[in-house]
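Cross-posting from the modeling subforum.

Setting up a comparison between two proteins and wanted a second pair of eyes on the formatting. Protein 1 (sequence, then structure tokens):
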Amino acid sequence: MNDKQLLMLFVRNPELGKVKTRLAAAVGPEKALEIYLQLLQHTYSITKELPVQKLVYYSEALDTNDLWPNEQYHKRVQPAGDLGEKMADAFAAAFSEGYTSVVIIGSDCLQLTPDIILQAYRELEEHDVVIGPALDGGYYLLGMNRLHPELFRNKRWSTADVFPATVHDIHNLRLSYTLLPRLSDVDYVEDLEATL
């Protein structure tokens, strides 16, 4: 176990009508919740054995009795603000607590594997930033060795602009970076079909 490496997981509390809303428009809120629960289960299964510290950030409220065992996963509620502000604050907190390699993932990627996450930490030994680009133009993973708040500012979150805008900022900051495999996030029915 590396106590200086932290994996942060941003998840939504699995509530009917509040998860996978774009998917729900096609399949209905009940089916969308069922799919989201499968995504959470997948995310747990690929992270539970990783030899790093783990922290689950919930969208609404802490749940100490869910699929994330309290002995393995620290738990907090996401900070206030838009997605960028939430992530920036989470990274800032992690570095202030002494972590030296910090990676964040969501819970939307059925193609994500333990090996890819471990690869991110290996890449951080030689690069300032590591990104896992998503097919929809966002990213499913972001890692860094110290806070670069510019990467979280002036982004149109949940659009195809996020990944290119982030890389643009990395170039402007003259940071070294590397890319992980391009994977599919599950936001629409087509995404789900593509990953099965």
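Protein 2 (same layout):
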Amino acid sequence: MRIAIVGGGLGGLTLARILHRRGVDATVYEREASRSARSQGGSLDLHPESGQHALAEAGLADGFRSLARPQGEEHRILDPTGRTLIHHEPQPGSFSGRPEIDRSALRDLLLDSLPADTVAWGHRLAAATPRPGGGWELTFHGGHRAGCDILIGADGARSVVRPLLIDVQLSSVAMLVELTIEDVDRRHPDLAELVGPGNLWCVGVSQILAAQRLGDGNLRVGISVPAGSIGSKRALLDLFADWSPRLTALIEAGDGAPTPRLIETMPLGTRWATRPDVTLIGDAAHLMPPVGEGANQAMLDAAELAAELAAHLAADPGSAIRKYEEAMFARIHPIAEMSARVQAMMLSPTAADDIVRFFSRT
């Protein structure tokens, strides 16, 4: 039984690792040329009930603990004047909460746990065609072909696999503009102190200026505004002209040009009719606003799908996919609703008051 996983992000690699640990082989087809082809982004907090649970199923809990930063869970929320609204400090050295880990470090942990030939690099899926006897013929850019019996789309927001199951229109909800400040402790100690060891949110009227500490000594700065076009650092500084210079210094200190990214979501309640030989995990299945659940839910998808496939692959793989999807749809719906509420709240005119109330009751 040949299993093809399209996409070598955190969800796809977690799925491949847990399947491998249970004696099931799979091939991961990844469009990037190598693991170092591009930056993997900032850090993320792994939740005990989802991301950390998946790593435990993958046998990588100790590896995670060696790389994670419990102090990264510290969270500071300020208003545009620099006044502190919320300051959450985790228990020192405790892994009981949601410790941070750099995405690149987590991806490397997963890659290093797999046989060397598991990931086929430089394979960007162009089309998947049903075979007369079942399964799929995969065609990749450049002309390479491969066959599989089960196809799993872990290929993100603009999934090529998703249209095999459902036609979905994505909606734009915000614009995220990112900057990096390198070697912040040495070059900008004042900004290092402002952000602290974890995450900083500065919340204004339909604007958020955020920063997070990375394990490599850099800061990753993110500016969230309603969907639109922002092309330069000067335009960003003009947008935040009435904010405290102490905060906008995060924009001025950014190395290189800003990188804009449109934030898109899938409609709430998206689901499809089950097919016995193809399914989706992660953003391909349930793209939602990036408020802390995306990677965690992708990894939990992987753990739950791997468990079903390992139990039913030989006798009834279609049943494994159906059981996984039924549980996933039920689990994701309230999480997607919550994520949409938080995204709307963060970019509302009353965001500061709303966020203080939200964190005060959680």
